């Protein structure tokens, strides 16, 4: 999974946000998010850190190619942790991992 695919997956499946809302949350415009998702440009390290914090996905998981998502569990409830684990299981099932 490429960085652009990971960003789109996190936005749609974990945060459940449209492009505009995701962009607003990160303090960028929606064209910037679209460019990330279409591999026209890469997000800054600061934006990757912010996406990591918002999604509880490790920075390494975003930037390392073909690596499964690694959860960071800080300040989340058990229910939120279970939901994130379910998303990852579904992702692995879809991608035959």
Q: What does it look like?
A:
With 97 residues, the protein is mainly alpha-helical. It has helices at 3-14, 19-26, 30-37, 45-55, 59-63, 78-94. The protein is globular, with a radius of gyration of 13 Å.
Task: Note the topology.
Blueprint: H1 3-14, H2 19-26, H3 30-37, H4 45-55, H5 59-63, H6 78-94
Helix pairs in contact: 2-3
Q: How many beta-strand runs?
A: 0
- Tally the helices: 6
Order of helices and strands: HHHHHH
Estimated share of beta-strand residues? under 5%
Overall residue-averaged pLDDT value: 87
State the gist of this model.
The chain is built from six helices and no strands. The protein has 97 residues and is mostly helical.
Task: Supply the key terms.
97 residues
């Amino acid at each position: 999974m490429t960085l652009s695919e990971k960003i789109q997956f996190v936005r749609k499946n974990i945060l459940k946000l449209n492009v505009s809302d995701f962009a607003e949350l990160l303090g960028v415009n929606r064209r910037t998010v679209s460019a990330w998702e279409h591999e026209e440009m890469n997000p800054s390290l600061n934006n990757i850190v912010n996406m990591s914090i918002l999604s509880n996905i490790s920075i390494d998981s975003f930037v390392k190619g073909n690596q499964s998502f690694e959860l960071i569990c800080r300040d989340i409830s058990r229910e939120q942790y279970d939901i994130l684990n379910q998303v990852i299981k579904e992702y692995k099932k879809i991608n035959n991992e």
